[in-house]
């Protein structure tokens, strides 16, 4: 499975591509950070991110995107910009019929380091070790994008089993309700 990990942001947007193998084996295929000048108008910054993501999607053909879920921060303008960048990226994937999954920062940290409160240095160190990289990915946005992709590779089988179980439960509930209705 090819997973594109995205750490959305207006100033720096981390993009990565990994491929999962057997078990927990993962290979890094590409990583980059898209930068936009903070003085540029919002629509130009979103366009730059959109253009870069379009190029990545058309070049790498990922099976799924893993995007960091925006969480509440003290700085509302930062949250808004991050959410807008994530929306542009999710839209680009949807136009290509590519599944998108959102993971919280604590889910990603827990998956990669075993600690949902790990700091950036710990995440970077573990990403470097897991992917057997010769050098630490920099800046932190690159490491975060790789961590998101790793997280999804390791969580995807469980997420698929949960979705299948929920679908089966819904189907059984419908059958049960139909029987109850028929008896009345």
UniProtKB/TrEMBL annotation:
Q: Which GO terms describe its biological process?
A: DNA recombination; DNA repair
One GO cellular component term noted in the UniProt record for this chain: Holliday junction resolvase complex
Q: Binding of Mg(2+) 2: at which residues?
A: 68
Q: Cite the InterPro entries for this sequence.
A: RNaseH-like_sf, RNaseH_sf, X-over_junc_endoDNase_Mg_BS, X-over_junc_endoDNase_RuvC
What terms describe the molecular function in GO for this protein? crossover junction DNA endonuclease activity; DNA binding; magnesium ion binding
Q: Where in the cell is it found?
A: Cytoplasm
Reactions that this protein is recorded to catalyse: Endonucleolytic cleavage at a junction such as a reciprocal single-stranded crossover between two homologous DNA duplexes (Holliday junction)
Q: What is its main location?
A: cytoplasm
The residues that hold Mg(2+) 1 are 7, 141
Q: Does the keyword Transport apply?
A: no
SUPFAM superfamilies in UniProt: Ribonuclease H-like
- Could you tell me the keywords of this UniProt record? Cytoplasm, DNA damage, DNA recombination, DNA repair, DNA-binding, Endonuclease, Hydrolase, Magnesium, Metal-binding, Nuclease
- EC number, as in UniProt: 3.1.21.10
State which residue ranges cross the membrane: none
- A Pfam family matched by this chain, by name? RuvC
Q: What does the record say about how the cofactor binds?
A: Binds 2 Mg(2+) ion per subunit.
| Source superkingdom | Bacteria
Cite the active-site annotation: 7, 68, 141
- Cofactor(s) the protein requires to work: Mg(2+)
Tell me which Gene3D superfamilies the record gives.
Ribonuclease H-like superfamily/Ribonuclease H
Q: What does this protein do?
A: The RuvA-RuvB-RuvC complex processes Holliday junction (HJ) DNA during genetic recombination and DNA repair. Endonuclease that resolves HJ intermediates. Cleaves cruciform DNA by making single-stranded nicks across the HJ at symmetrical positions within the homologous arms, yielding a 5'-phosphate and a 3'-hydroxyl group; requires a central core of homology in the junction. The consensus cleavage sequence is 5'-(A/T)TT(C/G)-3'. Cleavage occurs on the 3'-side of the TT dinucleotide at the point of strand exchange.
Indicate the quaternary assembly.
Homodimer which binds Holliday junction (HJ) DNA. The HJ becomes 2-fold symmetrical on binding to RuvC with unstacked arms; it has a different conformation from HJ DNA in complex with RuvA. In the full resolvosome a probable DNA-RuvA(4)-RuvB(12)-RuvC(2) complex forms which resolves the HJ.
Q: Which family does it belong to?
A: Belongs to the RuvC family.
Q: What is this protein called?
A: Crossover junction endodeoxyribonuclease RuvC
Q: Which organism is it from?
A: Mycobacterium paragordonae
